[in-house]
Design brief:
By secondary structure, the chain is an alpha/beta fold. The protein has helices at residues 15-26, 39-44, 53-61, 66-71, 91-94, 105-119, 239-250, 301-322, 326-353, 361-376, 378-389, and strands at residues 2-5, 8-11, 31-34, 50-51, 73-75, 78-82, 85-89, 100-102, 123-124, 128-133, 141-146, 149-154, 157-160, 178-193, 203-207, 210-218, 221-228, 263-277, 280-281, 284-286, 292-293. The strands form 4 sheets. It has an 8-stranded mixed beta sheet with strand order 7-6-15-16-17-14-18-21. It has a 6-stranded mixed beta sheet with strand order 9-3-2-13-20-19, with helices on one face. 45% of the residues are buried. The protein binds flavin-adenine dinucleotide and 3,4-dihydroxybenzoic acid (DHB).
Length: 394
């Protein structure tokens, strides 16, 4: 058994765990990051692509934003499409200069792993049997195995950054945790294609046959999503069928449609809203998807995770610098408030833009009326824009 000591044990090397480790490093606080997957798996996992202004600012201020500044695609607006027409929402103008940046989560993770390597602080991939103990004592422990070697890491705090399926949230006694969940009766089929994006901004579309989303990763790679069934079998989706369905749902009467190209990745993502309250038990703090899941339609998940670790990093810095516990004590309440705002927005975007089998023709007409109002009212467009670009981290 190898016995180790650190200030903060971080479980999970997704965006939350890696960014927290980096922020702590900048404050001179020691941490060990323990991840159960391999480095390749963590880097290759295709997920989010939209960074709010606050997340971009955080990457820059933390000194890990150089490649993001060079390669990220800043979008000042977004399109909403329905009934064969695309409508532009100028988010930058409506929010006094805020925008979003398209930069793959894989790239964020790569930049943060590089920063971790440069810091010389420990990051263990491929750990097994990861478990947390004594979260209500002064010195909690995280135990894990690397190959045949058992490790016991004693720390001051544990950061549960291990995603929705991790082990940290279940370490909190159920009587101390309140959870709220909503599952949606549909999923997203997502693809990456080697095709130049045919629009320089994202297109969120409601079609009679369901939702579709046009996004991108670079000037050569298009990212696209289609609403599909929860139990969708990818074997039923040939590349031809995917393109035909995407074009049917996205094509507008001015002739716009996505460019086709070889499909390099396909996957199905379930959609759920989930909140666990509080985000803290004793010396265990939950951050990111470990504490909350939003359906992807509002592009909020990664951004909420970044806001959590920014708060947690600042709170731990005040604690170690001046024994000030106020940040730690308000961490959960402040996070829950931001989470519910993002939940409301993501639920609203999802219900406005997807078709459900349980709906009747009235619902579709109502959705079209809502979209019609959205794109013709400056107040409604401002509300979407403010939420989409995100409020300042607080
Ligand atoms: P995760 O990324 O889930 O990382 C958790 C890490 O913990 C993982 O590496 C996991 O392997 C590890 N782990 C799990 N169990 C253990 C264990 N027992 N021991 C050790 N390690 C463990 N969000 C946006 O903001 N914008 C978007 O555009 C967007 N689009 C999305 C599109 C799709 C298709 C999907 C699926 C998600 C999207 N999201 C988006 C959500 C976003 O990807 C997540 O919110 C984000 O990954 C959360 O980061 P995290 O670090 O908290 O969790
Ligand atoms: C992407 C994902 C989203 O969930 C979204 O709302 C917009 C874009 C993307 O992966 O590019």
């Amino acid at each position: 058994m190898q016995r180790l000591r650190t200030q903060v044990a971080i479980v999970g090397a997704g965006p939350s765990g890696l960014m927290l480790g980096h922020l702590l490093h900048l404050h001179g606080i020691d941490s060990v990051i323990v991840e159960n997957r391999s480095q390749e798996y963590v880097v290759e996992r295709v997920r989010a692509g939209v960074l709010e202004q606050g997340a971009v600012d955080l990457m820059r201020d933390a000194g890990v934003g150089a490649r993001l500044a060079r390669e990220g695609l800043r979008h000042s607006g977004v399109y909403i499409a329905f009934s064969g027409r695309r409508h532009h929402i100028d988010m930058e103008e409506l929010t006094g200069g805020r925008a979003i940046t398209v930069y793959g989560q894989n790239e964020v993770v790569k930049d943060l792993i590089d920063a971790r390597a440069a810091s010389g602080r420990p990051l263990h991939f491929g750990a097994s049997d990861v478990a947390v103990h004594d979260i209500d004592r002064e010195h909690p422990r995280v135990t894990f195995r690397l190959g045949d070697d058992e490790h016991e890491l004693t720390c001051d705090f544990v950061a549960g950054c291990d995603g929705f399926h991790g082990i940290c949230r279940p370490a909190i006694p159920p009587t101390r945790l309140q959870t709220y969940q909503r599952d949606y009766p549909f999923a997203w089929l997502g693809i990456l294609a080697d095709a130049a994006p045919s629009s320089d901004e994202l297109v969120y579309s409601l079609h009679e046959r369901g939702f579709a989303l046009f996004s991108m990763r670079s000037p050569r790679v298009t990212r696209l999503y289609l609403q599909c069934a929860i139990d969708e079998d990818l074997d039923n989706w040939s590349d031809d069928r995917i393109w035909s369905e995407l074009k049917t749902r996205l094509r507008t009467s001015d002739g716009w449609e996505p460019n086709e190209g070889p499909i390099t990745q396909k996957g199905v993502t379930p959609m759920r809203s989930f909140v666990a309250e509080p985000m803290r038990e004793g010396r265990l703090f939950l951050a990111g998807d470990a504490a909350h899941i939003v359906p992807p339609t509002g592009a909020k998940g990664l951004n909420l995770a970044m806001a959590d670790v920014w708060r947690l990093g600042s709170a731990l810095a005040s604690y170690y610098k001046s024994a000030d516990v106020r940040g730690l004590e308000t961490y959960s309440d402040r996070g829950i408030r931001r989470t519910w705002r993002a939940q409301r927005f993501s639920w609203w975007m999802t219900s406005m833009l997807h078709r459900s089998d349980s709906e009747n023709p009235f619902d579709y007409k109502r959705q079209i009326a809502e979209l019609d109002y959205l794109v013709s009212s400056r107040a409604a467009m401002t509300s979407l824009a403010e939420n989409y670009v995100g409020t300042a981290f607080d």
